[in-house]
Amino acid sequence: MNGFRKVCRWLHRELGFFAVGLTLVYAISGIAVNHVHHWDPSHTAYVANSRIEPPGDGETEAVAPLVLERLALQEPVKETWRAGREVLQVFVQDGTIDVNLVTGEVVRRGNEKRPLLYDVNFMHLNKGKAPWTGIADAYAAVLIVLAVSGIFLVKGRKGLVGRGGLLMVLGIVLPVVYAVFARRG
Amino acid sequence: MRRIVTALLLLAVAVVPAVAKEKIYGKGVAAGDVTPISVVLANPDQFIGKTLVIEGTVVGVCAHRGCWLSLASDVEGETLRVKVEDGVIVFPKEIVGEKVRAQGVFKANRVEDTAKKCDATREGEPEVQCKTVYELFATGAVCNWK
């Protein structure tokens, strides 16, 4: 048993160090995306108002180039769309610009990436797919090894047969009870 | 150590072109005819329950969960909503302004103006004013497929 415990300690220690970075990524992002109904965990929204010389509500082919010229954007334009007789929308990388063709009012609504959170959420939600799927699967396997090896680290009253065992049962019962009640609800 | 760094650099070079390609959501879109959104919206009832492929520029996207997007029709001012199963397909905010082709079943939903389900009218109560909202319930989509 001591040999087995030694292996568990070694595995737990080595993989534990390795898992620090990835655990922080998933934990920080976990809290952030858990509250997605309260906020956007990856972006901050902004609205900016300005005005251009009104190009008039003529044909789209005629007014769209005028609008782009008068907006004098420093960034690439993805697309323009005539949302209505008086409104032309201009799509750029981080948002949408609504231009009132009659009044010349410009409302830019956009989203800026939250520093750090955008990247950890990108990884947590696996938006990059292929390369990250393998890394995330490997990390999940590491977590399983950490969880199982952790059970056998300490012997005696603080270990599996004592307080450690009680805490482990609590940690297993908690999600099971929740799952039962959540399913009823 | 040098070998590991070289291998990682080669992996990064291999990954970059893969990321830059078209983006597929869900089951993607099978090859086949595209039905113009204007044709669908001109006679929506004849398309209900049918599997369609539509395409257009994304002019709106669900801000919180990325569970729907709004595609511009080939007719100015017209749009059609593309709904996907929550959490199964998540459209990013950056998709607005991109060209998207989507495949799914065309549906008509009766809703109140408050967007609630239109099943609240009971005997003896005032009739709930409902309208029909059309949408494509998509199983897949492709962004910038050209």
Describe it:
Helix content of chain A is 52%, strand content 19%. Chain A has 185 residues and is α+β, with helices and mostly antiparallel strands. Chain A has a five-stranded antiparallel sheet, with helices on one face. In chain A, helix 1 packs across helix 3 and helix 1 crosses helix 4. Chain A is elongated and about 85 Å long. With 146 residues, chain B is α+β, with helices and mostly antiparallel strands. Chain B has helices spanning 2-20, 37-42; strands at residues 23-26, 51-61, 68-72, 79-83, 99-112, 130-143. Chain B has a five-stranded mixed barrel with strand order 2-3-4-6-5. Chain B is globular, with a radius of gyration of 20 Å. Mean pLDDT of chain B is 81; it is low at 13-20. Classes of the chains: A alpha+beta (185), B alpha+beta (146). The A-B interface holds A 36-37, 40, 43, 60, 78-79, 81-85, 89, 91-96, 111, 125, 127-128, 130-131 and B 11, 15, 18-19, 57, 59, 63-65, 72, 76-77, 90, 92-94, 96-99.
In short:
The complex is a heterodimer of chains A (185) and B (146). Chain A has 185 residues and is of the alpha+beta class.
Give a topology summary.
The complex is a heterodimer of chains A (about 180) and B (about 150).
Chain A: H1 2-34, E1 43-51, H2 60-71, E2 77-82, E3 87-92, E4 95-100, E5 105-113, H3 117-124, H4 130-151, H5 163-184
Antiparallel strand pairs in A: 1-5, 2-3, 3-4, 4-5
Chain B: H1 2-20, E1 23-26, H2 37-42, E2 51-61, E3 68-72, E4 79-83, E5 99-112, E6 130-143
Parallel strand pairs in B: 4-6
Antiparallel strand pairs in B: 1-6, 2-3, 2-5, 3-4, 5-6
